[in-house]
Amino acid sequence: MLTILWLLSLFLPASCAQLLVTCAYKGLCQQALLSSNDVVLQCDHLQAYWYFSSFQGEDPFLVSSLPNIKKLPGGSLQLNKPQPSQTGLYRCEDNNTALVVEYEIDFQDVTMLHITHKGLGQNPLQNQSLSLGREEMVFTHWEPWQDCNRCGVPGERKRLGYCYIQESLENPMPCWLYLGDEKVWSSRLRPEMQVEACLVPCNESEELIQPFFTSDISKLGQSTNNVQLTCPLASIYR
Ligand SMILES: *[C@@H]1O[C@H](CO)[C@@H](O)[C@H](O)[C@H]1NC(C)=O
Ligand SMILES: *[C@@H]1O[C@H](CO)[C@@H](O)[C@H](O)[C@H]1NC(C)=O
Ligand SMILES: *[C@@H]1O[C@H](CO)[C@@H](O)[C@H](O)[C@H]1NC(C)=O
């Protein structure tokens, strides 16, 4: 049986492991991320102006009006516990309204995270077609495995996977950037995390900063499919 965990607060208060998202000058970059995990969008311009537009058809507005978003002194934008509703286009302009950099960010709902452990025979989600009439396929775009959380003794490592949609012959896109304001519900539309056992030798010149994660997910989920884990010093990105 698949066990689905609902992680409600895998964010970190410390700034040390904040994910930095970068993009080339005047570029437009698309990225899927997880909600409730802090990120910084880079824009190296001292007099940067950031605008946000969602897919709900509203005009772009200055993000300084949003309580969980802060412009850093160098021009980059810090998003504190971003919500799925903050999915959309983030545009950084210079003081002459010229584009510096743009990001299309899909904040996928961390409370929908589908977690599986390889060693327990749990399977990640299967590819699935959507019926919007354009032969769309929903699949998980996996990040590389992260470092083992311990060395010299058995440990665990994890990798994150984001929901992507691919239309035949088109480039795949993060699900909610593809869907825009289209109202579609499918239980396949969710991000994933996979965990596996690892055993790596210790390297004294390299500090292992992986938080210890968990060992047996199925036990946690025995009485109910919903479990709330809080790990205030960990980030899901490392
Ligand atoms: C924009 O900023 C630059 C660098 O600070 C400054 O030299 C320039 O006068 C500014 N332009 C406007 C229109 O404010
Ligand atoms: C799922 O779809 C992706 C993208 O089209 C593809 O790369 C992957 O091989 C597919 N996986 C399976 C099991 O069919
Ligand atoms: C140990 O870590 C250092 C720094 O990351 C790296 O240069 C070195 O190759 C590593 N040694 C081994 C045996 O992995």
Automatic annotation (TrEMBL):
Its main location: membrane. It is found in: Membrane. Residues 1-16 form the signal peptide. It is a single-pass type I membrane protein. InterPro entries: FAM187A/B (IPR039311), Ig-like_dom_sf (IPR036179). One of its GO terms (cellular component) is membrane. Keywords: Glycoprotein, Membrane, Signal, Transmembrane, Transmembrane helix. Belongs to the FAM187 family. This is Protein FAM187B.
